[in-house]
Amino acid sequence: MISSLARKLAGFGYPNAAELLLKTGSTILGNNLKIKFHPGNFWTHYKNGWAINERYPDVRFDPDKLLASIKDVYFFNFQPAGNDVFIDVGAGIGMESIYLNRQPGYYGKIYAIEASPLTFEILKANVEDNHLENIQVYNLAISDLNGTIIIDTTQENHITNSVFTKNGTAVQAITMDAFMEENQIETVSLLKVNIEGAEKLLINSFEKIFKVKHVAISCHDFLNKRTGDINFKTKETVTRFLRNHNFDIYSKTTGVDYIDDWIYGTNKSYNTF
Length: 273
Hints:
Layout: H1 2-11, H2 15-28, E1 34-38, E2 42-47, E3 50-54, H3 63-73, E4 86-89, H4 95-101, E5 110-113, H5 117-129, E6 135-138, E7 141-143, E8 147-151, E9 169-175, H6 176-182, E10 188-193, H7 199-202, E11 212-218, H8 221-227, H9 235-244, E12 247-250, H10 257-260, E13 262-267
Parallel strand pairs: 4-5, 4-10, 5-6, 7-9, 10-11
Antiparallel strand pairs: 1-2, 2-3, 8-9, 11-13, 12-13
C-alpha cells in the first residue's frame, strides 16, 4: 500500500511527499532505509553503502538478505574469484553482477547483458551509481540469430519479460558466439543465464560453449506448468546440450519450483583451456 501510494504521489508531481511517506514507512518497520525518486521513473534505495535502483520503491529493502539469496541460487555451484570473467545474461537490474563485484578478492571483468530497454536503464544506473568500472553493460537479447527480436515489455515485473511474443519492443539480438567474438572473450569462468525461456534459443547457436568453465542456467519449466506455454519448457533441452558438451550438471531439490529449475554445470575439461 505504501509503495502504491508513493508511486501515485510521484506520478502526480509530488516526489518529496512520496519520499517522506516512504521514510515514515521504513522507520515504522525499523528499517534504516532512504528511498529517493529518480527522474527516470524509478527509485533509488540507500542502505549500508548500497545505492540500488528499482522500478518500484520497497520499504523492506534489505541488501544483506538479498545477498544471501543471490549466493545460494546464482552462485550455488561456483563463485568467480580473482580475475575470473563473469557473463551475466539476463542481468535484470544487475544485482548478481553487483554482488560479485563487491566480493573481497574479486577483480575480474563482468559483462552484464539485459534485453529489456527499461530494465537496462535501471541496470545502467545501478552500475553508474555504485561506480563499478569493471562491469560493462549491454542492451542486447542473446538468441540464436544476429539481428532484431521482439521482447514483451508490458509486464509489471521486469523479470517476466519474454521474447515469445508478437507484440512488444524491438531490440538488437546477437548470438553468444558473436558476443564473445566482438568482445574478444577467450575464457568464461561463469556464464549465468536467466532469460525467460530463451535459454533454448541461446544454446542453438553456441559453438563456443567449450570456452565456458561453469554455467548457471535458469530453465523455465515451472512457467510451462503454470501457464501451459510450451515455449517455457527448456530443462530437458538444456540438460542434453550441456551433457553433450562434456558438462557435469547439478540441480537443487528445495521444493521451490523456480529454484529447482536451475541447472548448474561444470565443464569436465575446463582445466585444459
